[in-house]
Amino acid sequence: MKIENIKTFGELKNSGYQTKSIKEELRQNLLKKIKNGETSFNGIHGYEATVIPELERAILSKHNINFLGLRGQAKTRLARLMVNLLDEWIPIVEGSEINDDPFQPISRFAKDLISDVGDNTPISWVNREERFFEKLATPDVTVADLIGDVDPIKAANLKLSYADDRVIHFGMIPRANRSIFVINELPDLQARIQVALFNILQEGDIQIRGFKLRLPLDMQFVFTANPEDYTNRGSIVTPLKDRIGSQILTHYPQDIETAKTITSQEARLDENQTEMVHIPELAKDLLEQISFEARDSEFIDSRSGISARLSISAFENLLSTAERRALKTGEQKTLLRFGDFLGVIPAITGKIELVYEGEQEGSAAVALQLIADSVKTLFPLYFPKIEKLEKPDGKSPYKNLVEWFFSESGFEILDELSDKEYKEKLDSIAPLNDLIEKYQPKISREDKYFMKEFLLWGLVEFKKLNKYRFDKGVQFKDLFGSYISGL
Fold first, then answer.
1. Domain span at residue 440?
2. What's the rounded Cα separation, in Å, for the pair 379 and 382?
3. Domain check: are 25 and 55 in the same one?
């Protein structure tokens, strides 16, 4: 018999339906996926050998779970994806506030109804998408919010005394019976509220305003926490930690390729943007390197974390900067330029927590420094390394290029040049063309111009050239000429 045709408890029993706990559901469905070689958590990258195996072991062990990690490490995303391991539909007693299982009713309403009408008890079906509940832990959360409270309006309407348990209004946790319940940022929850979770996790008892009810709730609890919170804002009380079966440590992407995959998946781009703007692979690498540099920067508080959202927002800003320029110059398509990276600064400054030294520098200056450090890190992967100390008679591969700038009064790239003008500007530097042909001969014509700018910015970072930012663009000069003009 099809699910939609089962309307009563009697029909449900005759169909041969076997009830099981939510943790058993998760376990059995995960076992099937593992046996069939299917991916359990689609869209999660970089955790294949670390977090995912630990999470699968926790589910197989039927544990409540705590994800411990810095912000932007997909903790809540993992919890939401657990919904896909639930059965597609489960039956409940129709009208039940707490998703009563017809075979194992726990509320007074469901027990009385089944006692009165037996096999004629009406049944309704709940989809797995409706079995996910989430609560952000904030200092103002109360026991009444999570567990429940006496409802005087219900008592008045039903003409019941406060001694009758039917006057109870259930909180979020009982209403999430037979569901996945997530509490985000658990350390922010007041200690007395955390204490109220003890018995729910272990024995299934709840107490509401003097009522001690035996409610063996069937739930999968998932908590998320940030290690920073243990010292700065609060802590998880020890007895509660003891009742959480598995604590799983999350982490940031460990390589640029993984970070690029995440950014590409999560960035909300307009189709017109992707068609209009050509993005070199080097630009994507450089964008991700900014986050890696931020995690090691002396100006940034590493304890607060550098969220993956920094790269995602920066990527969106990067394309919007190029798109805006193309619209102003009236072009249908454009190449991404190095100067467009200045447009990602607002995406960086809002997502970093500065230490004292960083505050002295200023968030915009720190963001510019992160871009500069990223160039310096990636430069040796594409061009010969520039040593701090070079022999005076040594033949540097960059000698001709530096001399070209010495003989010129200054070379400028304006922000709003058309693509044609932009290409002509860079093509006019013969030694720059020679270096690209020699060290990056296989690069595509579209990517060549970004690589040229990257080379110029790299020489700036390694003190071979000087760079000046003015209102309408960037000017490059040689070091000695800049010094003379300064005098």
1. 388-487
2. 6
3. yes
